[in-house]
Design brief:
By secondary structure, this protein is an alpha+beta fold. The protein is built from 25 helices and 31 strands. It binds O-methyl-L-tyrosine and zinc ion. Residues 305, 309, 328, 331 line the site of zinc ion (ZN). Residues 111-194 form the Aminopeptidase N-like N-terminal domain.
């Protein structure tokens, strides 16, 4: 058995404030080629009422401590000791206020974990959330310690002409030996996880934003010199986000400067450090030749997300890490609303719901299930999950639906009024929402306490005589421990359609609170067709029986665009699931004629918004479909999926080709507006269907698109179609992709890898292994790792080969990666966690790999936690 020395589980119930707190931090970074010296000076105070002899505890991880002093006097070693591996204790008694100085040295060049101070290409940068600051210097590294920071950076002027930290630059100048310095002051008290510093040779673009109270804010975006021209979309997005937050929530930017820095090596998407956001290049750089339409939208959303954190996260922060969803659920909700306003509300909602269903539902239904406010963790970094972020955002959306737009705004205003400048809890947020609106949200807390996806069953009765409609809603939810959850408080938005498709009654929000609750509506003149859970008003699974005809009716008439799409998705799923069953029973698969009719109608309806039309034509994704199978059978599911897609394509080949051609845009000019994006989306969905046929004619169409594409969207679409159809055209397209686009661009190289790793072909495993051995593949870059490993894990049939070869291959890679970057390794291991959903041989194989990880000597606590939880 592996040694499990550092596996300490922390519990939410154990929160206690500290005896001392740091109120001011002064830092000096002296950056040298092979080592960085960090001198820190912490102004510390004992809390009122704390005992005088209380010891003072500081977090520190992997630091080489050179000296330690209090109020200028060196501390003898007898006064301090490491009471835990990463916890230094200075014994009392101590003065009620004092200055603690320390000098440590670190080696950013050797920091492959990408937490703390590290070097990405030639850029020195930091990542401190959640617990990275302790890898830079000794500190009370917890979010309820909020201090002001003054920072001085010294480095070689030629290799590091740009020196940045939080807040305003107060001084800069030259030093001896070709070195220079800059000092920064951040007037807003902040937790250590929001600290950042950057030193390197960076190019930049500059702009300004005038706030509504007419303050001019300098906006600067930095990247490696060769990428500077790809920063304009992010800058444009930032200005839109700044304006939107003023208009929507009355929130204005609070400093004179806002910086964004792009780095190649980053464990997550981006980080909201006060006035110095650090971004993964994949979430900020965009040009038509290197980024898809989806990338453009994602970048806009993430830029907004990090900017919005300035209020929801920075000005008001989390008391402890269990409260993470306080800032993340809320900020995701805010960025989703922003994107809905900037692009198309319905399209964005469809995309977001797809993520919840295909990623969060499986997490909630597996061994990693946790409430949006978890009760315990071993490695906090493992809890930056789709549950905390995405389900957390759905929970915020429910406040919005229950209280209405104005009510929600009142709650937000009160939240800031009460808590600006402090570190608070999810209960504080809920209380602000309740108090501002004079409502009782006690039961609503269950969304924070209970994991699992609720199932709501609806039964409708219509009494013709009495003109009375009654809706019986029953909710149930299995907790991860196997018990029944207590009923949730949730809004169910319902529309009522007349037989002619018009709205028979105004839409309503039903407030479901009981396990079983009847809603009676009087004066209903005819039996309506129900449009339930409009806009996915609660993160639940809805059960309601209806036939394909009613679904087709909703597809054609529902005024709620989301539910029109939803009806189509249900029709697709039914056919695919029926075919998977047929496949398992050794019977012939079939295509439902009603489905083909519905798809034809959607395809030929030129009055539709093209993006919505494209989504209406898109099959539910495999993860989504797997979620509603009792035992996941990847072979049957993938074959049924492919069969259904191919048969639709066979039936509608000419229409698909015509729609494809009708939506081609001229190659000599690129457009990025909503209409052009919609046209590309629709055209590429048609191409996807056609490629399922796999004949020479359609593959030639794909190849032509791949060779002549004037943007990354079209290249990726065509290359993905071809990667799934190995042969001459596929080889040509992928070679062209590599030589012309991917070879010299890290982010495009990632796309080239991801497309091939996701392709469902018999050679899938051999292909991923070859990609892994590609000379440009480096396991040190998280984007490259994700492109290969996460994409392969989504390749349902081949990752889950019954002989276990896919599982074994990925586990080999995880163990290799874990030695360098535990955070990313642990994330990838979650792809094996849901083994209980599969058939016996696959269960055994996934379990065996998890056990192998658990039994490996020296595995990180991040990765070990996933293995342990998965196997529990
Ligand atoms: N707060 C960031 C996400 C983030 C979280 C952890 C990180 O390192 C472990 C990095 C970034 C956000 O929500 O964007
Ligand atoms: Zn965030």
């Amino acid at each position: 058995m592996a040694e499990k020395k550092a596996l300490k589980e922390k519990f939410r119930r154990d929160y206690t404030p500290t005896n001392y707190f740091v109120e001011q931090v002064n830092l000096l970074f002296q950056v040298f080629e092979d080592c960085t010296k960090v001198s820190s000076s912490l102004k510390v105070k004992r809390r009122d009422g704390a005992p005088e002899n209380a010891p003072f505890q500081l977090d520190g991880e992997g630091l080489t401590l050179q000296s330690l002093s209090i109020d200028g006097e060196t501390l003898p070693p007898s006064r301090y000791s490491w009471v835990e591996e990463d916890l230094l204790e200075i014994s009392g008694p101590l003065p009620s206020s004092f200055v603690l100085q320390s000098l440590v040295t670190t080696k950013p060049e050797e920091n492959t974990q990408l937490s703390g101070l590290y070097k990405s290409s030639s850029i020195y940068c930091t990542q401190c959330e959640a617990e990275g600051f302790r890898r830079i210097t000794l500190m009370q590294d917890r979010p309820d310690i909020m201090a002001t920071y003054e920072v001085r950076i010294e480095a070689d002027k030629e290799s590091c002409p740009v020196l940045l930290s939080n807040g305003n630059m107060t001084e800069n100048g030259d030093l001896e030996n070709g070195r220079h310095f800059a000092t920064y002051n951040d007037p807003f008290p902040k937790p250590s996880y929001l600290f950042a510093m950057v030193a390197g040779d960076l190019g930049f673009i500059r702009d300004t934003f005038v706030t509504r109270s007419e303050k001019v804010v300098a906006l600067n975006m930095y990247s490696e010199h060769n990428n500077v021209k790809k920063l304009y979309h992010a800058m444009d997005s930032l200005k839109k986000a700044m304006r939107w937050d003023e208009e929507t929530f009355g929130l204005e930017y609070d400093l004179d400067i806002f910086n964004v820095v792009a780095v190649n090596d980053f464990n997550m998407g981006a980080m909201e450090n006060k006035s110095l956001n650090i971004f993964n290049t994949s979430c900020v750089l965009a040009s038509p030749e290197t980024a898809t339409d989806a990338d453009y939208e994602r970048i806009q959303g993430i830029i907004a997300h990090e900017y919005f954190h300035n209020w929801t996260g920075n000005r008001v922060t989390c008391r402890d890490w269990f409260q993470l969803t306080l800032k993340e659920g809320l900020t995701v909700f805010r960025d989703q609303q922003f994107s809905m306003d900037m692009t198309s509300a319905a399209v964005k909602r469809i995309e977001d719901v797809n993520v919840v269903r295909s990623m969060q539902f499986p997490e909630d239904n597996g061994p990693m299930a946790h409430p949006i406010r978890p009760e315990s963790y071993i490695a906090m970094d493992n809890f930056y999950t789709v549950t905390v972020y995405r389900k957390g955002a759905e929970v915020i959306r429910m406040y919005h639906t229950l209280l209405g737009k104005e009510g929600f705004r009142k709650g937000m205003d009160l939240y800031f009024q009460r808590h600006d400048g402090s570190a608070v809890t999810c209960d504080d947020f809920r209380r602000a929402m309740a108090d501002a609106n004079g409502v009782d949200l006690t039961q609503f807390e269950r969304w924070y306490l209970q994991a699992g996806t609720p199932v709501v069953r609806c039964e409708a009765k219509y009494d013709v005589e009495a003109k009375r409609l009654s809706l019986l809603l029953k909710q149930s939810c299995r907790t991860p421990q196997g018990g029944d959850a207590l009923p949730f408080h949730m809004p169910i938005r319902v529309g009522f359609l007349a037989q002619d498709g018009s709205e028979l009654l105004p839409e309503r929000v039903l407030e479901l609170k009981e396990a079983s609750q009847e809603f009676v509506i009087e004066n209903v003149n005819s039996k309506p067709v129900l449009s339930l859970l409009r806009g996915f008003s609660a993160p639940i699974k809805l059960e309601y029986e209806r036939d394909d005809e009613e679904l087709a009716f909703l597809m054609a008439h529902d005024k709620d665009s989301f539910n029109r799409w939803e009806a189509g998705q249900l029709m697709f799923s039914r056919t695919i699931h029926a075919n998977a069953k047929a496949m398992q029973a050794g019977q012939a698969m079939q295509l439902n004629a009603k489905l083909v009719d519905a798809v034809r109608r959607t395809l030929l309806d030129t009055s539709l918004d093209k993006s919505l039309q494209a989504y209406a034509l898109t099959l539910p994704n495999l993860q989504n479909l797997a979620e509603s199978m009792e035992i996941v059978d990847p072979d049957a599911l993938v074959d049924a999926y492919k069969f259904t897609k191919k048969e639709i394509a066979r039936s509608l080949r000419d229409h698909l080709l015509k729609t494809y051609e009708a939506n081609l845009l001229p190659e000599d000019s690129f457009r990025n507006d909503a209409e052009a994006i919609g046209m590309r989306r629709l055209k590429n969905v048609c191409l996807g269907y056609l490629a399922a046929l796999g004949d020479k004619e359609v593959l030639d169409v794909c190849l032509k698109q791949a060779l002549t594409a004037n943007c990354m969207t079209d290249l990726v679409a065509a290359a993905s179609c071809l990667a799934a159809n190995p042969g001459e055209q596929s080889d040509k397209a992928l070679e062209h992709f590599y030589q012309q686009h991917a070879k010299d661009d890290n982010l495009v190289f990632c796309k080239w890898i991801a497309i091939q790793a996701a392709a469902c072909t018999d050679q899938a495993l051999e292909i991923v292994d070859k990609l892994f051995k590609h000379p440009s593949f480096t396991i040190k870059n998280p984007n490259i790792c994700r492109s290969l490993f996460i994409s392969f894990a989504g390749n349902m049939k081949h990752f889950h080969r019954a002989d276990g070869s896919g599982h074994r291959w990925l586990t080999d890679r995880i163990l290799e990666l874990d030695k360098l970057n535990p955070q990313t390794a642990a994330k990838i291991l979650t792809k094996l966690a849901g083994y209980k959903r599969f058939d016996a041989p696959r269960q055994a194989s996934m379990k065996a790999q998890l056990e192998r990880v658990r039994n490996t000597e020296g595995v990180s606590k991040d990765t070990m936690e996933i293995a342990i939880r998965a196997l529990a």
